[in-house]
Amino acid sequence: xxxxxxxxxxxxxxxxxxxxxxxxxxxxxxxxxxxxxxxxxxxxxxxxxxxxxxxxxxxxxxxxxxxxxxxxxxxxxxxxxxxxxxxxxxxxxxxxxxxxxxxxxxxxxxxxxxxxxxxxxxxxxxxxxxxxxxxxxxxxxxxxxxxxxxxxxxxxxxxxxxxxxxxxxxxxxxxxxxxxxxxxxxxxxxxxxxxxxxxxxxxxxxxxxxxxxxxxxxxxxxxxxxxxxxxxxxxxxxxxxxxxxxxxxxxxxxxxxxxxxxxxxxxxxxxxxxxxxxxxxxxxxxxxxxxxxxxxxxxxxxxxxxxxxxxxxxxxxxxxxxxxxxxxxxxxxxxxxxxxxxxxxxxxxxxxxxxxxxxxxxxxxxxxxxxxxxxxxxxxxxxxxxxxxxxxxxxxxxxxxxxxxxxxxxxxxxxxxxxxx
Length: 421
Fold this sequence. Notes:
Number of helices: 21
Order of helices and strands: HHHEHEHHHEHHEHEHHHHHHHHHEEHH
Shape: flat
Low-confidence stretches: none
Structural class: alpha/beta
Helix content: 55-70%
């Protein structure tokens, strides 16, 4: 795979091709969108029916960060804008920037003015902007044009008085309006945050974006990393590259490595980063991907600072972390210090260990875990409550905790048994 002077070698072409694929959301998500049951097909149908049938719609796209909500939405909007170039207007807001109602309405008014080449007034009041948006919805509806409102970080808009959501959804109750509100959030319970008056005007449509299964992950990797046979690359090299890739994917060591990877993050976004690192580690002189490339990518992705924090913990703090993990395995999503203490006493009664401490000592250890950011409060609204009564959550995955315990020099054997039970 040597390189001629001034000419790109086949291995460099392959590396650039794979990096380009991994940086292109259209290439990544298009195969996942072929099925009529895919979120892409469902979302496109909902939006296109609003355009063709002149009706209003609202929908929530829900799923963990990196699951492809925004990428699939952009893919659907891109196709629809090509299909209906003169009929659709897209207004984009982000809850991190526009959660204030006045700021949000002003931004909607500004984007509508830009879209329709109107003069925007920076000094317009909330009511002025609200009336302007209602008028624009009416005029666009009469002209058979659809306005699509994309609200990213939707949960931020669902805080406070929710005047923006109420104004938008109330204006869409008009017969003449023609609009779609698309909320994007990583909170699966975001619809429960809506006030009654807002919820009654919402369509209650939801699309869940779940991490792919193991089989889907394997098919996805093969789709991304396989080379096209009918390309400008040497045919023999392409066949050999694809053959070696299939051997890696079927190797038991690779499957074990992928199980480790999927245990702490299995979203599409994180998988793309993992594959990008593996491709970047490819030896250009050899010209093929190897198992070592994937091992290097995995080790660089694993969050070492958390493991360092675990190594600095006391034995008691490790017991508290393991007890929290056990509570999560029991599907106890909300727990506080008192719940953890109950589990701690239960494990001590079962194993009769010498590592049992008084409750006030355990509380200090619990506070140390909060300071180290291995644990955090699940709800920041109840700040007036004492620490032992506030619900908490683990900030490390079970795989990270298990790895941290195994690397801990004087870790009691009981803790490793508790992790496996």
